[in-house]
Each structure stands twice: as C-alpha cells, then as structure tokens.
Design brief:
Helices cover 81% and strands 0% of the residues. It is built from six helices and no strands. InterPro entries: GltS.
Length: 154
C-alpha cells in the first residue's frame, strides 16, 4: 500500500495528463480486490457453522445496528458532516462489518455513484490496515494472556 501511495505521489508531481495511468491502476486495483474477496468467500466453510446459525444471526443483526449507529453518530459527525466524512463513514461501516477490502468495496460503490473522495481513500485504508492491525494484535495478545491466567495455563 505504501508503494502505491509513493507511486501516486510521484506521478502527481510530474507534469502532464496521467488519466490513462490512473485508469489502469484503478482497473488493476478493482481486479485485485475482486479476486481477494472471491478467494475469501470460496475458502469459507459455512456448512461447519450450521449449528450456530441462530446465534450468529443475532450477533450479525446486533453488529449491523451498532455499526450503523456508531458510524452515523460518531464517525460522520466527528469527521465534519461533509462528503468526505460520509465516504469515510461508509468505509468505516465496511471495516466494522468485515475488513479493509470490504471498506474499500463499499467506498468504491459510493464513489462510483457520486464522486471520488481522495481523503477517504487515503485515510480509511491506512487507519484500517495499519493502525487497527497493530492495535488488534496488542489487544488480542493481552486478552489471551488474561484468559490463560484465568484458566491457569502459563
């Protein structure tokens, strides 16, 4: 991701029309994202979760309600209540319900219908991809250590 950002900044500084290059980058990005999402869905073994259908449905509905309220009341309002804030809130909802590729897909869908938001496509992947992965690793490790201590392992 950092390489893509650097390439984009390099070509933005060069004079001339780079629309063809950006269209090619967008096409490759959409193809890669679609391939990743497809491979993720194909590798899921949903039949193994058939006994958990009811509880998972309740969790899903709860999470959707929570993320919609959270993204509207906090993300959208705190980021300025403008178009960029709306696209970032949409990306946050995709991230909250799935992962960074889901947030990218939801933001692309909104931007295709209305207009592109450079700020959202810079902020959401960086925050979602880098910062949350690092913080998740720390939080998960802490909770695993707490669970081990409660059970008496290690």
């Amino acid at each position: 991701m950092l390489g893509g950002i650097l390439i984009r900044l390099f070509y933005d500084r060069k004079k001339g029309n780079h629309d063809v290059l950006y269209e090619a980058i967008d096409t490759v990005g959409e193809f890669s994202l679609g391939l990743f999402v497809s491979m993720s869905i194909i590798t899921m073994k949903l039949w193994q979760l058939s006994d958990l259908g009811g509880p998972l449905f309740v969790l899903l509905i709860s999470q959707v309600i929570f993320i919609v309220v959270f993204c509207y009341l906090l993300t959208f309002n705190l980021l300025g209540r403008d178009y960029d804030a709306a696209v970032m809130a949409v990306g946050h909802s995709g991230f909250g319900l799935g992962a960074v590729p889901v947030s990218m897909t939801t933001m692309q869908t909104v931007c295709r219908k209305y207009r592109y938001s450079k700020l959202a496509f810079f902020v959401v992947p960086v925050i979602g991809g880098f910062i949350s992965n690092i913080s998740n690793a720390i939080i998960i490790t802490k909770f695993l250590n707490i669970a081990k201590a409660m059970v008496g392992i290690g």
